[in-house]
Amino acid sequence: MNDNNNKDHIKLSLPNKPEFVSVARLTASSIASRVGFNIEDIEDIKVAIGEACTNAIQHSSLNENDSYEIEFILDIDKLIINIRDKGNGKCKKDIKTPNVEELKESGLGLFIIKTLMDEVECISCEDKGTEIRMVKRIEVGV
Amino acid sequence: MNDNNNKDHIKLSLPNKPEFVSVARLTASSIASRVGFNIEDIEDIKVAIGEACTNAIQHSSLNENDSYEIEFILDIDKLIINIRDKGNGKCKKDIKTPNVEELKESGLGLFIIKTLMDEVECISCEDKGTEIRMVKRIEVGV
Amino acid sequence: MALEIKKTFDKENDRWVIKPNGEIDIYTSPEFKETLLDLIEESETDIVINGENLDYIDSTGLGVLISGLKKLKEKERNIIIINIKKNINKLLDITGLNKVFIVKECK
Amino acid sequence: MALEIKKTFDKENDRWVIKPNGEIDIYTSPEFKETLLDLIEESETDIVINGENLDYIDSTGLGVLISGLKKLKEKERNIIIINIKKNINKLLDITGLNKVFIVKECK
Ligand SMILES: Nc1ncnc2c1ncn2[C@@H]1O[C@H](COP(=O)(O)OP(=O)(O)O)[C@@H](O)[C@H]1O
Ligand SMILES: Nc1ncnc2c1ncn2[C@@H]1O[C@H](COP(=O)(O)OP(=O)(O)O)[C@@H](O)[C@H]1O
């Protein structure tokens, strides 16, 4: 990731607790608005971050005293967001379209992120945790 | 600081650039509101954080590629906030009441923090940077 | 408070109305789940979710709605979602849940 | 934009009015400084700051107002602050700046 050196980096580290996901959403909104996204894109980013943080809490260590980290990398034409937890969960390689007619209560999170962002990747590394990496491009002329 | 182990910690790291101080303010507001402060206290915390970040940027290394860190420690009855920069500035030990009649354009920041928060300390450590540590207590019955 | 939930009985249409005020997310959805499932347990009517004051819902909140609907379907009843905001409508749309619930009167 | 600044001439009272919209902080105060000092340079009147749409000001913004006042005092003119919000009035109060500027019609 040498080419990330000259870009602005913002990091936020939060406890593995549901009550702080709203802090992640608000921080993400304010960064997205500073970077110049329009209101609809800001909302998309907020929702995507919320889902990724929820996964970090639900599928990771379940240890409330652990924390997870969100990194924002501000590129000229895009915002890159990495959410890293220290759990030992396993992310699936491909993100499927959920069949909601089956009335399954789970399995929507990554699909929602995929739909709202331009790129998503979920990478689990045994013993080290999972990283959800997502990218939202800034529309030209905004 | 062993007694901080069981408390929730939130960390935010920001580039030494004026445009991101608003992100610090918003993140602080959302944490303060989550912790249960009332609206006036949230506003005080927001202003105090803004001043501390401004100092971290103005009096530190002046290297835009450096970053500074804000740590929020959530205690039962108080919120502790540390703002750490990597500059080589020197903080004065005592925070004086400014004489504004002299029409000096600077020297208000730390005094504003002191007035709005319950405790402030500014500690410079040569070569390592400066840490502004502030505490806001949560009023009983809020 | 991040979420307040109001329950009222709509006599005219013989059904319960739930009006969540605020945000339904991983933090608040357990409370929303309790309210919704308790109501479904007790009643035999359709349930209306009035989204007028609902600012945000995430996948855990959608999951609660889905589990509610599953229980209601056993009684041949439904969840009717009214007055939802644009951002939430977008979520129902992209997940396909707008075809699973009855979604009416979008703002 | 985090800050927009409107300048208008109040003919009735023969003075310039500056109406900042948004937040004056370390990021936006250079722009505010330029607007204020340029106006002071060009004009010989009092200057009114209409704070109706000013949501936030920090010590760098207050510093700009102080440097403006210093220049105006040389011409025996003043800065008059009107319609400011409660949170900003609190800052002027605790710093003692409410005795240095003319602060009127607080909301
Ligand atoms: N941060 C993570 N750590 C480990 N596994 C994850 C993580 N995020 C997602 N997963 C895996 O991917 C699956 C799908 O995630 P998602 O679409 O968000 O649905 P849900 O979380 O409701 O199961 C999860 O069930 C889990 O197995
Ligand atoms: N983060 C910091 N690093 C180094 N020095 C600092 C820092 N914060 C404050 N100081 C010192 O304390 C002084 C007073 O700060 P302040 O009251 O905020 O006024 P101002 O920043 O306008 O000078 C500064 O001039 C500086 O010398």
Question: How would you describe this protein?
Answer:
The complex is a heterotetramer, with two copies of chain A (142 residues) and two copies of chain C (107 residues). Chain A is of the alpha+beta class and 142 residues long. Chain A has one domain (7-137): Heat Shock Protein 90, CATH 3.30.565. Chain A is 30% helix and 27% strand. Chain A has three helices and five strands, in the order E-H-H-E-E-H-E-E. Chain A has helices spanning 21-35, 39-58, 109-116, and strands at 8-15, 67-74, 78-84, 119-125, 129-137. In chain A, strands 1-2-3-5-4 form a five-stranded antiparallel beta sheet, with helices on one face. The longest helix of chain A has 20 residues, at 39-58. Chain C is of the alpha/beta class. Chain C has one domain (3-104): 2-Layer Sandwich (Transcription Regulator spoIIAA). Chain C is globular. The A-B interface holds A 6, 8-15, 17, 19-20, 22-23, 26-27, 29-31, 34, 65, 67 and B 6, 8-15, 17, 19-20, 22-23, 26-27, 29-31, 34, 65, 67. The structure holds adenosine-5'-diphosphate (2 copies). Residues 55-56, 58-60, 85, 87, 89-92, 106-111, 122, 124, 130, 132 of chain B line the site of one adenosine-5'-diphosphate (ADP).
SSE layout and pairings?
The complex is a heterotetramer, with two copies of chain A (142 residues) and two copies of chain C (107 residues).
Chain A: E1 8-15, H1 21-35, H2 39-58, E2 67-74, E3 78-84, H3 109-116, E4 119-125, E5 129-137
Helix pairs in contact in A: 1-2, 2-3
Chain C: E1 3-10, E2 15-24, H1 29-42, E3 47-50, E4 54-57, H2 59-74, E5 79-82, H3 86-95, E6 102-104
Parallel strand pairs in C: 2-3, 2-4, 3-5, 5-6
Antiparallel strand pairs in C: 1-2
Helix pairs in contact in C: 1-2
The complex binds adenosine-5'-diphosphate (ADP) (2 copies).
One adenosine-5'-diphosphate is lined by residues 55-56, 58-60, 85, 87, 89-92, 106-111, 122, 124, 130, 132 of chain A.
